TrEMBL record:
<dbReference type="InterPro" id="IPR019823">
    <property type="entry name" value="Mechanosensitive_channel_CS"/>
</dbReference>
<protein>
    <recommendedName>
        <fullName>Large-conductance mechanosensitive channel</fullName>
    </recommendedName>
</protein>
<comment type="subunit">
    <text>Homopentamer.</text>
</comment>
<dbReference type="GO" id="GO:0005886">
    <property type="term" value="C:plasma membrane"/>
</dbReference>
<keyword id="KW-0472">Membrane</keyword>
<keyword id="KW-0812">Transmembrane</keyword>
<keyword id="KW-0813">Transport</keyword>
<keyword id="KW-1003">Cell membrane</keyword>
<dbReference type="InterPro" id="IPR037673">
    <property type="entry name" value="MSC/AndL"/>
</dbReference>
<comment type="similarity">
    <text>Belongs to the MscL family.</text>
</comment>
<feature type="transmembrane region" description="Helical">
    <location>
        <begin position="70"/>
        <end position="94"/>
    </location>
</feature>
<keyword id="KW-1133">Transmembrane helix</keyword>
<feature type="transmembrane region" description="Helical">
    <location>
        <begin position="20"/>
        <end position="50"/>
    </location>
</feature>
<dbReference type="InterPro" id="IPR036019">
    <property type="entry name" value="MscL_channel"/>
</dbReference>
<keyword id="KW-0406">Ion transport</keyword>
<dbReference type="GO" id="GO:0008381">
    <property type="term" value="F:mechanosensitive monoatomic ion channel activity"/>
</dbReference>
<keyword id="KW-0407">Ion channel</keyword>
Amino acid sequence: MRNMLDGFKTFIMRGNVIDLAVAVVIGAAFATVVSALTEGILFPLIAAIFGEPDLTKVWAFKINGADFSIGLFLDAVLNFLLVAAALYFCIVFPMNKLAERRARGKEPEPAPVPEPNVVLLAEIRDLLAEQNRRA
């Protein structure tokens, strides 16, 4: 039993699990921000253009009793694009810029200095190649 608990503790304390937990919490909080954006700004704009508060009732029709709602699909696509754009511009883009700044601050590593015997062998090789060209 103790071994199993130690294994669980090791699993939980790994960086991947903690990163995932943080991502879930941030994602839930971010969803409320995107929801407020869509309900407070986007849906009123859609209502002004299409006369409906959202796209679910736009381009809806029936064929032989089957309901088709193109607007429902467009609403889901629009919501996905909003979430993806907000995530990119609020999280991914700033993190990439931060990584670039950090990389710029570091000095490039100097080229490795070859060992003296390697330099000597290269000089001998070059001299032999030059002698062969003259001959």
